Structures are given as C-alpha cells and as structure tokens.
Amino acid sequence: MGPTARTTAETTTEQPARWSSRQTSWDRQQEAYLPDREQRFAALLDVVEATRGEQPRVLDLACGTASITGRLLARLPGATSVAVDLDPALLRIAAGTHAGDERVRIVRADLGTPDWVRAVTDAAPEVAHGGFDAVLTATALHWLTPERQRALYAEVAGLLAPGGVFCNADHMPDPGLPALTGRLGQWRDARRESLYAEGTALSWSQWWDAARSAPELADAVAERDAIFAASHGSSESMPPYTTHLDYLRAAGFAEVGLVWRGLTDAAFAAVR
C-alpha cells in the first residue's frame, strides 16, 4: 500500500449538497450489507457518552466516509474527531461532508503499518499529548491480518488517555455456535442478494461503478483501485470474539468485553 500521508479537501469545499448525497448513498449501500449498522454505531456512542462525557476527543479509525464521526457530532456536538483511512475516494467524501467543521480533522494513513500513529499525532499533536478519550471503528479491521490486528490493538492503547475506551464492531462469530453461524451467514447473503435483485439497494460493485463515473470522484477512485488492486478483498480475518479479547488483554487494557451482539457480529469495549 502507499505511503502514509495526510489528505486535503482541495476539491471538497464546493457543492455541499452533492457531498451530502454521496454520503447518503454510501450509507444506504452499507445498510444493505449491514441491516443493524445503526445499532452497532449507537452501541459505540453509548459507551463513549457513558464513560467520557459530552466533549470526547475521538479517533475514528478506518473511518471510510466518516459515518461514525457524523453520528458522533450529531449526538455530542461538543465532541471532536480525527478521522483516519487510506481510501482516497471515501476520504474525499468525508472531507466534503465535513468541510469547514473545525471539530473534524481528516487524516490519510495506512493501518497496515505502524506509521499511521505518526500521521495521527502529527495531525492532532494536542491530542497526542493528552490521549484520545475514545477510539472507534466498525466493520473495517477484518481486512488486516491477525498479526497486524494484534499489533494495532497495542498501538491504539498507546494513543488513549487513562480510562479511555477502544470499541470495535466487526465480524466476530461466537465460537460456541459454529453451525448456526454458518446458517446465519447463508441467510444474510440470500437476503442481501434479494435486495440487489429487487433494485432496493446498490451492491458494493454497483456503488463503486457509479463512483468511477462521477466527475468529483473519478480520479480518487482510480487511485483507490491502484492501491487496493493486490490486497483488498483477497482475504479477511474474522476470528471469534474471544481471540479479540485475548489480543486486547495482551495489549494491556484493564477491562475488555462485549457491549453489543448482532447475530454473527459483535462489538467489544476495552478500557485503558
């Protein structure tokens, strides 16, 4: 993957309605993939508000279009967010959606290497000294290898303030339900394909095909295609939730456990 770098919003300060529309279209596509998407977001924000109050300093990790950031600021207007991702197309939508909002900083960095930590601390040095109140991520880190996931959890711990929380909602099957997990996965896939066939929602590939033809995104999507050509989609790491909790304990978190479950997915919270 490409080198760590900070993104800019050069072309995103115009036509806010267009960026809002792009954000909405991304959300709709994701909701077809994850019907309980809003529930998992709400669980993460419940943890943040309950533990860190109304003005948390949040790191939105593997942020995509910064969907979590948008919901964070709607719920807690006094919050701030540093939103991090590698994808130039999704970051462009994030930058356009939040253009002019001083509460949000967009950072382009590759979570596949530890260099992302420097990119974040350079972008938000005042937070780096005191630590983030919360690090949030959803349905993204399964693209990392198990070894990289484990290392990332330790890196996250180093960015949190004492008492800060790390929450990740992702594919985390229950090891006690192997046969049921398989059946639930088949049911979920069939439901999604039905939505696509009905035209109720765009599939992943349809959404990206539309983005490639959008003047405001075409160059960023071309760059994205080059970045992820040899990696994205090649493999996914979806260990049971118990493995994630083991990684967190090894990283030095004081408390770890699940705060939400949705069939084959779950969200953990880890307290620094």
TrEMBL record:
The keyword Cell division does not apply. Residues 18-27 have a biased composition (Polar residues). Residues 59-166 form the Methyltransferase type domain. It comes from the Bacteria. Residues 1-28 are annotated as: Disordered. Residues 1-14 have a biased composition (Low complexity). GO terms for molecular function: methyltransferase activity. SUPFAM superfamilies: S-adenosyl-L-methionine-dependent methyltransferases. Keywords: Methyltransferase, Transferase. GO terms for biological process: methylation. This is Methyltransferase domain-containing protein. It comes from Actinopolymorpha cephalotaxi.
